Amino acid sequence: AHGGTSDGSFGIAGTWDSSISYHAAMGPIELAYMRGMAEADTDANVAKSDYAFGIKVKHIMPGLEFGYARAHDKSADSNRGLSNDKVFASYKVMPNLGVFYTGEEVEIAGSNHGAGDIDTYGIHYTMGNNMIQVAVAAGNMDTATTDYDTYSISNQMNLSKSTNLVIGITRKGVEGSGNAVRTYGLGLTHKF
User: Fold this and answer.
1) CA 6 vs CA 23, 47, 158, 167: distances in Å
2) Which of 37, 85, 135, 145 is 20 to 30 A from residue 174's alpha carbon, by CA?
3) Alpha-carbon distance 127 to 97, whole Å?
């Protein structure tokens, strides 16, 4: 899990309801689009005319993937709208070793962050049935007292061809007043 990501409905970790979506993969290009369809803000976490899209390009160079994504809140900022923009890239350095980067410009504040920039760097290594991932992120928020650094480590253990177990820990240290926050994660995925 990436340690520094935006939250809320329009963040990387957000979910949308009352929306339609489209996803297409054509050769090395993947496209995705979502549009909010709810009539009122009180009925759903996204409203009519909110949108999100993304494009990912892979296999241009062996092991390299990169892309761009945007989530737009049409009702924010007196109906002019605000957006969260993200660029991302990953590169498979060796058969079991990969690195990744995510840069996000955040205009839509979430419950755990203000507007600003978040840069995340990470590495993952596969060893047998385990994939170990380490990520470091820096949040440079518009309000200096909310700047933060996060450090994360996780392990995904493949229990079978269709089941895996993920455990992880993230530590977020806020520059201003406040204590460091530790988040622990445990997940089980089974594909039918």
Assistant:
1) 23, 19, 28, 21
2) 85
3) 9
Instruction: Show the tokens assigned to 21.
Output: 């979506």
- For 42, residues 6+ apart whose C-beta sits below 8 A from its C-beta are none
- Tell me how far apart the terminal alpha carbons of the chain are, to the nearest angstrom: 23
Residues facing 69 on adjacent strands: 54, 86
Residue at 11: amino acid letter: G
Range 2-31 average pLDDT = 70
CA 95/CA 189 separation, integer angstroms: 24
Helix, strand, coil % (nearest 5) of the chain? 5, 60, 35
Q: Quickly tell me which residue has 């009519």 as its tokens.
A: 48
Q: Maximum distance among all alpha carbons in the chain? A: 53
**Section 163-176 average pLDDT:** 89
- The whole model's pTM is what? 0.76
* Spatial separation of the C-alpha atoms in residues 122 and 103, rounded to whole Å: 12
- In this prediction, residue 97 carries a pLDDT of 97
Kindly provide the b/e burial profile for residues 169-189, where b requires at least 16 CB atoms within 10 angstroms of the residue's own CB: ebebebeeeeeeeeeeeeeee
Q: Which of 156 and 115 is assigned the larger pLDDT?
A: 156
CA dist 82 and 75 (Å) reads: 8
